[in-house]
């Protein structure tokens, strides 16, 4: 049985393999990203969270560096009643600082999946 959520806490939903992918990260990275997601559930924004370019408002990325590698989680707070984690990945771009096209496209597809899930669970999304 799931413990009762606080009055202002939004449920957290994982899209696709995002949860399993995050669980493969180093412990300190999981802790840092987990803190950012917890803040999002209560309406806050972690200092390391920034807007994810390309999907408009309400989609954020949070990153954590570890031993020369960068780990990211992309999530949305666009829907009033929930937080959706769209993607979690270790940044390995062949083009320098740019995020790989496959990761950008995956976020777009998973945002559509999250929207459809939200509408099934809560009704029409008010974005």
3D architecture notes:
This protein has a single domain (12-122), classed as YaeB-like fold (2-Layer Sandwich), CATH 3.30.2310.20. It contains 3 helices and 5 strands. The protein has helices spanning 18-23, 27-41, 101-122, and strands spanning 12-14, 49-51, 59-66, 69-76, 83-90. The chain has a 5-stranded mixed sheet, with helices on both faces. A hairpin with a 6-residue loop joins β4 (69-76) and β5. It is globular, with a radius of gyration of 14 Å. The model has no long low-confidence stretch (mean pLDDT 88).
How are the secondary structure elements laid out?
Blueprint: E1 12-14, H1 18-23, H2 27-41, E2 49-51, E3 59-66, E4 69-76, E5 83-90, H3 101-122
Parallel strand pairs: 1-5
Antiparallel strand pairs: 2-3, 3-4, 4-5
The helix content is: 25-40%
Distance between the termini: 31 Å
Lateral strand order in the biggest sheet:
1-5-4-3-2
Indicate the structural class: alpha+beta
How confident is the prediction overall: mean pLDDT?
88
Strand-residue fraction?
A: 15-25%
């Amino acid at each position: 049985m799931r413990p009762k959520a606080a009055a202002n806490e939004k449920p957290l939903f994982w899209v696709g393999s995002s949860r399993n992918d995050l669980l493969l990260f180093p412990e300190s990275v999981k802790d840092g990203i987990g803190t950012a997601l917890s803040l999002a559930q209560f309406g806050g924004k972690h200092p390391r969270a920034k807007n994810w370019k390309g999907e408009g408002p309400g989609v954020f990325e949070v990153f954590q560096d570890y031993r020369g590698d960068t780990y990211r989680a992309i999530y949305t707070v666009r829907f009033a009643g929930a937080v959706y984690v769209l993607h979690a990945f270790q940044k390995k771009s062949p083009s320098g600082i740019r995020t790989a096209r496959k990761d950008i496209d995956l976020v777009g597809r998973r945002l559509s999946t999250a929207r459809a899930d939200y509408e099934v669970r809560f009704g029409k999304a008010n974005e």
